[in-house]
Design goal:
Radius of gyration: 25 Å
Mean pLDDT: 93
Distance between the termini: 82 Å
Structural class: mainly alpha
Largest sheet: 3 strands, parallel
Number of strands: 16
């Protein structure tokens, strides 16, 4: 009997894996990665992601759950089709209380509630919780629209930015009232060039050429005004001659109303890691402060009576400091929100002259010199040339680390370069500020970021979305385009191919494109341990960069050097 039982158990042990294998074989299998399927999705996704002031779903903001309000510039009467939205969409139409000359002139808290800022032309939104036109997202989206032969649409989005600059003080983080206090990475001149240099943007007729020149004249004046955002005292990185990110608002950001636990997560981590470099980010405070303490917190932390997000941001006897919130807001202007590049949760972003921002401004200045020459403004061209040369000198003085062979962010408060390896060290290749020898040394360190599925943000796994093991479309494109422009085509094509394979893998897995990817596992398996945990679907810049990577992959191979 015992022998029979042992024999039975042995047969069962063999049969169970066989049965499991048979069941697995009979279960529906996900489709194999297929670039044609990904492309079909992208071609149709532009329409899905399109918004305009004539449609009700364009007004919705899931980040702030109040009833929709649409704000128009103070100096602009409501067009009839906008007035019609009041009945059609049950939305309030209001005007801003006064003209906005520059970012930060109007405190969003002066308004009756948060709302959408009017834009005249249709635009593509990123997707997911992001249902408005974003600043740096739109550069990549515009590249994708043009790659997909939607040039008029791309031009309309750039014209929307001119409207923002003229009526809302500058190119905004996005067209919501709570973004009236900050911009985003300055890609405007790159957007202008993308439209101006595309032959399909204007008719090839005398009238079309006149329209093209008039458009560039207007673009030049708008870009000049937008550039002034980055030369204001608040955006200066100490005495370095370089720029920093900065938001003119105070306290926690209103758009975190749908994720108010984020700041609690930050406090929880800081309390658990007392010697992490974030010691200056916390102060002792009560969970329910009395009137006297609330008055102190307005100066040392945030206004608990003015912001429910502020009131909830408490853990273990601590609140976040005013300086942390300044850094938190600056981080959001950078677009990299959040990581550990500028201290825990990027709380010290405003203490740094970043490589990315100053690379973008160098390219901005070179573009403006180019536009000035096209428009017959030689004195302006000389001025822009001097600015770019000075920025290059300052970048090489403070950001280029000759011993390590990298461009690194510079902490101008502590007077020291960061040793945090970050993909932004490749931005100088794209901007053209790196010399040939510097480019060679930067590329020699590519393995700091290169993974099976593309380029990782960093080589440190902080648990946050803008660090290892995650890769993002915009930084992968800047890096790949920079490698290509600097003459490292084989590296560019290899990483373009890796990225697109990762996107194909993700699409085969769940039938959509995502805002970020796991470049270690080469798929959309993104598990963020802290902070933003959702991998948004859509997704505007991923759609665009996928198309642009195909162009890089299609380029002829480099000839061997003589």
């Amino acid at each position: 009997m015992k022998l029979f039982r042992l024999l039975f158990l042995s047969l069962a042990a063999i049969q169970l894996p066989l049965a499991q294998a048979q069941n697995a074989a009979s279960a529906p299998q996900p489709p194999a990665p297929d670039s044609a399927a990904t492309l079909n999705y992208i071609h149709s996704a532009w329409d899905t992601l399109t918004r305009s002031m004539k449609e009700c779903h364009s007004l919705v903001d899931i980040k702030v759950t109040a009833n929709p309000i649409l704000f128009l510039p103070a100096e602009m009467p409501a067009p009839p089709d906008v007035k019609a939205l009041e009945q059609k969409c049950h939305v309030k139409i209001e005007s801003l209380p006064r003209h906005v000359e520059k970012i930060g002139d109007l405190d969003p808290r002066e308004l009756s509630a948060e709302g959408l800022l009017y834009l005249p032309n249709p635009y593509v939104v990123p997707g997911g919780r992001f249902n408005e036109m974003y600043g740096w997202d739109s550069y990549f989206i515009i590249l994708g629209l043009e790659a997909d032969h939607r040039t008029a649409f791309a031009k309309g989005m750039v014209d929307n930015f001119f409207f923002e600059i003229e009526h809302y003080g500058g190119l905004l983080n996005a067209n919501r009232t709570y973004y009236l206090t900050r911009s985003q990475p300055p890609f405007l001149t790159s957007m202008i060039r993308a439209v101006y240099e595309n032959p399909a943007s204007f008719p090839a007729t005398p009238e079309g050429r006149a329209e093209k020149r008039a458009w560039l004249e207007h673009a030049y004046s708008m870009a000049e005004k937008d550039y002034s955002t980055w030369t204001r005292p608040e955006h200066k990185a100490g005495n370095t001659g370089l720029a920093r990110y900065f938001d003119y608002g105070t306290g926690p950001v209103p758009e975190m109303a749908d994720d108010a636990g984020y700041y609690i997560d930050v406090l929880h981590w800081l309390v658990a890691h007392p010697h992490s470099g974030g010691e200056g980010f916390m102060i002792k405070a009560a969970e329910h402060p009395d009137a006297a303490e609330a008055a102190r917190l307005r100066q040392t932390s945030c206004d608990v009576h003015a912001s429910t997000v502020c009131m909830r941001a408490w853990y273990g006897g601590y609140r976040l400091t005013r300086d942390f919130y300044v850094g938190d807001r600056a981080m959001r202007e950078s677009g990299f929100d959040p990581g550990f590049r500028f201290g825990p949760f990027d709380g010290a972003t405003h203490h740094y002259a970043p490589v990315c921002l100053n690379s973008l401004l160098y390219r901005y200045e070179r573009d403006m010199e180019h536009f000035a020459l096209l428009l017959g403004k030689p004195a302006d061209a000389v001025r822009w040339d001097r600015r770019s040369k000075k920025r290059s000198i300052d970048m090489h003085r403070f950001l280029w680390q000759s011993k390590e062979g990298v461009f690194a962010d510079y902490d101008f408060v502590r007077h020291k370069a960061s040793n945090y390896a970050y993909i932004s060290s490749l931005y100088p290749l794209w901007a053209g500020v790196a010399t040939r020898e510097e480019a060679r040394r930067i590329v020699a360190k590519l393995d700091l970021f290169e993974r099976p599925g593309g380029l990782s943000m960093s080589n440190f796994d902080s648990g946050l979305q803008w660090d290892e093991p995650f890769g993002w479309a915009p930084t992968n494109w800047i890096a790949v385009a920079g490698l290509d422009a600097a003459g490292f085509r084989a590296d560019a094509q290899r990483n373009a191919r890796k990225w697109n394979v990762t996107v194909d893998n993700g699409f085969a897995q769940d039938g959509t494109l995502r805002e970020k990817y796991n470049v270690v596992s080469s798929n959309a398996d993104v598990k963020v341990r802290m902070g933003y945990s959702v991998n948004q679907i859509g997704f505007g810049w991923t759609n665009a960069v996928y198309l642009k990577m195909r162009e890089i992959m299609a380029e002829p191979a480099q000839l061997p050097a003589n």
